[in-house]
């Protein structure tokens, strides 16, 4: 059984506009995506801005209401019923946000930020609570003495680690990380990525990693789903997608990754031109008349592609 | 060299914090040639944007020392009125955040025309509009007449960045400074914008300073690269030299921390410690010293200087000779 299974997830936002803000066509931010995350694995959601990857993550944790579809966590349906049923999974699924500058309340001390999830779910005495927060801070490599400090006293990388300390406070099973390092410098980014992998092994965590950076996705993920306009165009293992990309959109995305070897610059330019002309030529075949991807069809045990209807 | 377009000598830009001045750009010397892309790489706080702003003379409260010469003409001592004439005509700047670089209350067509009104007063209204449409076509906007009438918020991020570029190249500048031109954009859009900058560079033969923190972008674009750390340039080399034979410990560490350069799932290299803030910078000795504490103190110079270790390849301080990553036994001697 997969830890998390998402089926036919749809999140539509009512469109408003025109005369007197009347209803128009809804915006289909997420339009029927499905994937599974196994225990201890990392699943990567890739896509350009506006592809619906963040909305998917937010819908799973309940920050956006689902329009239809289902999300099951350890076999339990998350979307049924209201508050009562959900509370337990809120312990097990946590989120790390993109921007470490706006995701921490500037008026709160570190103690209060990191202890907030503990206060919601566990009855600890103030002394125990302090002890737990100290341990957590130490775990993420911050000085345990800093519990009375405020977020502004920390650098970007340190702040992101505070966010991680908060996310792991309740020993969750799944962490949804939405662009966890895109606001950070290269050397700090490496530090946070290493750290995520460490706690993954130590706590048997699963990750849903949302990112637009294919280098990071390749480095971190076991399985990957590529989104375009709210739908999946391709899904498979990291190797499937990077070594044997099938969908024209995936190919185009991969060809846009900068090459580090200047000797291959010319070669890469030619390759890109080839992919681009293929993209223009094959666009009609790979996308329907609304420019949306077709449903996924399996081409191997692990690899699915949004195949054209015919041929 | 005689075809140097821009030469910067011992440029220092200091800002006042409390009652002292602190140098955000510290004794930077470099040159940019015609039809060349020089990339300046560094992390946030390394002073790369401050350097760009100093070249353009956009710092109003900074104390600027040293000299910046564009085709031999010194810019640092120019009166503001003369500088205003140069800026936007001979030097164009592409800003990072297109949404805040553009005026939200003006259609983009008029914003491009503004650059023409200021620097080419001879043009008639009709000629200006024609030229603007031409510029919009040049930066790859389909349907330039339609785009002319749009407000910035009606355009996508990639389109807005094209408008910013159109303004920067409106008067065919000799020098183009691009400050993180693609940081806010998706990879496929990034590629289009980089292609555009490369094409414009050869079209108008401008020298380009490309400021970025993204080594992938550098590898795609640059002819030469300058690496900045804590306000100083620590290494300058041609792109291929810098990638294949980096010398300064900072450059080598940076290249090691890119996920793409390592085996998937392996541990990435992390530089110890943090970048010291402006007030806490060591003013004596090698600034990278605190990040590589396992290297013997005697490896550093007392007053680190740039050493030319091969033609066109400069490295600051002598510590590069003795640098090794933790766990590496061998000490590499010197450079090729």
From TrEMBL, chain A:
Gene Ontology biological process terms, A to Z: peptide transport; transmembrane transport
Species assigned in the record: Paenibacillus soyae
InterPro entries given in the database record: AAA+_ATPase, ABC_transp_ATP-bind, ABC_transporter-like_ATP-bd, ABC_transporter-like_CS, Oligopep_ABC_C, P-loop_NTPase
MF-aspect GO terms: ATP binding; ATP hydrolysis activity
Keywords: ATP-binding, Nucleotide-binding, Transport
Keyword Nucleotide-binding appears in the UniProt entry: yes
PROSITE patterns, sorted: ABC_TRANSPORTER_1, ABC_TRANSPORTER_2
UniProt name for this protein: ATP-binding cassette domain-containing protein
Protein family (similarity comment): Belongs to the ABC transporter superfamily.
Xref: SMART domains: AAA
Ranges for domain ABC transporter: 6-254
Gene3D superfamilies: P-loop containing nucleotide triphosphate hydrolases
TrEMBL record, chain B:
GO cellular component: plasma membrane
Gene3D superfamilies (UniProt xref): P-loop containing nucleotide triphosphate hydrolases
MF terms in GO: ATP binding; ATP hydrolysis activity
Main location: membrane
CDD domains per UniProt: ABC_NikE_OppD_transporters
Membrane topology: Peripheral membrane protein
Domain ABC transporter: 6-255
Compartment list: Cell membrane
Keywords: ATP-binding, Cell membrane, Membrane, Nucleotide-binding, Transport
Superkingdom to which the source organism belongs: Bacteria
Chain segments annotated as transmembrane: none
InterPro entries named among the record's database cross-references: AAA+_ATPase, ABC_Ni/Peptide_Import, ABC_transporter-like_ATP-bd, ABC_transporter-like_CS, Oligopep_ABC_C, P-loop_NTPase
PROSITE patterns linked: ABC_TRANSPORTER_1 (PS00211), ABC_TRANSPORTER_2 (PS50893)
GO BP annotations listed: peptide transport
Similarity field: Belongs to the ABC transporter superfamily.
PANTHER family: DIPEPTIDE TRANSPORT ATP-BINDING PROTEIN DPPD (PTHR43297:SF2), OLIGOPEPTIDE TRANSPORT ATP-BINDING PROTEIN APPD (PTHR43297)
NCBIfam families in UniProt: oligo_HPY (TIGR01727)
The name this protein goes by in its record: ABC transporter ATP-binding protein
């Amino acid at each position: 059984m997969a830890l998390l299974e998402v089926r036919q997830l749809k999140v539509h936002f009512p469109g408003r506009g025109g005369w007197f803000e009347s209803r128009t066509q809804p915006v289909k931010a997420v339009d029927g995506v499905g994937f599974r995350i196994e225990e201890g694995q990392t699943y990567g959601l890739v896509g350009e801005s506006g592809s619906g990857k963040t909305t998917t993550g937010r819908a799973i944790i309940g920050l956006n209401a689902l329009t239809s579809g289902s999300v099951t966590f350890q076999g339990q349906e998350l979307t049924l019923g209201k508050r009562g049923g959900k509370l337990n999974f809120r312990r097990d699924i946590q989120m790390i946000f993109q921007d470490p500058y706006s995701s921490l309340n500037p008026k709160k001390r570190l103690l209060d930020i990191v202890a907030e999830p503990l206060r919601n779910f566990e009855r600890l005495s103030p002394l125990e609570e302090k002890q737990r927060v100290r341990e957590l801070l130490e775990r993420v490599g911050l000085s345990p003495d800093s519990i009375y400090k405020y977020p502004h006293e920390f650098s970007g990388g340190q702040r992101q680690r505070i966010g991680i300390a908060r996310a792991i406070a309740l020993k969750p099973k799944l962490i949804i990380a939405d662009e966890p390092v895109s606001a950070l410098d290269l050397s700090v980014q490496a530090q946070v990525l290493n750290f995520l992998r460490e706690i993954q092994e130590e706590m048997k965590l699963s990750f849903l990693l949302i990112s637009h950076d294919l280098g990071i996705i390749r480095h971190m993920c076991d399985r990957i789903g590529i989104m375009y306009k709210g739908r999946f165009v391709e899904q498979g293992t990291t190797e499937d997608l990077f070594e044997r990309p099938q969908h024209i959109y995936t190919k185009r995305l991969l060809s846009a990754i900068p090459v580090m070897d200047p000797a291959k610059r010319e070669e890469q330019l030619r390759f890109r031109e080839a992919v681009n002309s293929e993209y223009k030529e094959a666009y009609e075949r790979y996308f329907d008349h609304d420019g949306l991807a077709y449903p996924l069809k399996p081409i191997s045990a692990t690899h699915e592609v949004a195949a054209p209807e015919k041929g | 060299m005689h075809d140097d377009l821009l030469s910067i000598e011992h440029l220092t830009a200091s800002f006042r914090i409390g009652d002292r001045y602190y140098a955000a750009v510290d004794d930077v010397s470099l040159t940019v040639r015609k039809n060349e892309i020089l990339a300046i790489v560094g992390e946030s706080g390394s002073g790369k944007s401050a350097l760009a702003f100093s070249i353009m003379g956009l710092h109003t409260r900074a104390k600027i020392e040293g000299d910046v010469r564009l085709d031999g003409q010194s810019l640092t001592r120019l009166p503001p009125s003369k500088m205003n004439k140069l800026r936007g005509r001979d030097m164009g700047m592409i800003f990072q955040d297109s949404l805040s670089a553009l005026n939200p209350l003006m259609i983009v067509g008029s914003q491009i025309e503004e650059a023409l009104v200021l620097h080419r007063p001879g043009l008639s209204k009709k000629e200006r509009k024609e030229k603007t449409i031409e510029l919009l076509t040049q930066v790859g906007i389909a349907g330039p007449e339609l785009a002319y009438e749009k407000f910035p918020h009606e355009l996508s991020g990639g389109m807005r960045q094209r408008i910013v570029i159109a303004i920067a190249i409106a008067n065919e500048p000799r020098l183009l400074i691009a400050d993180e031109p693609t940081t806010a954009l998706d990879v496929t859009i990034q590629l289009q914008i980089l292609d555009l900058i490369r094409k414009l560079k050869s079209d108008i033969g401008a020298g380009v300073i490309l400021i970025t923190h993204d080594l992938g972008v550098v590898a795609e674009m640059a002819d030469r690269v300058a690496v900045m750390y804590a306000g100083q340039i620590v290494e300058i080399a041609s792109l291929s030299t810098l990638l294949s034979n980096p010398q300064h410990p900072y450059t080598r560490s940076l290249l090691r921390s890119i996920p793409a350069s390592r085996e998937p799932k392996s541990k990435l290299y992390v530089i110890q410690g943090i970048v010291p803030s402006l007030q806490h910078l060591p003013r004596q000795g090698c600034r990278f010293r605190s990040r590589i504490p396992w290297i013997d103190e005697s490896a550093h110079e007392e007053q680190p200087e740039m050493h030319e270790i091969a033609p066109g390849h400069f490295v600051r301080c002598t510590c590069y000779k003795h640098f090794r990553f933790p766990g590496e036994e061998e000490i590499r001697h010197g450079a090729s």
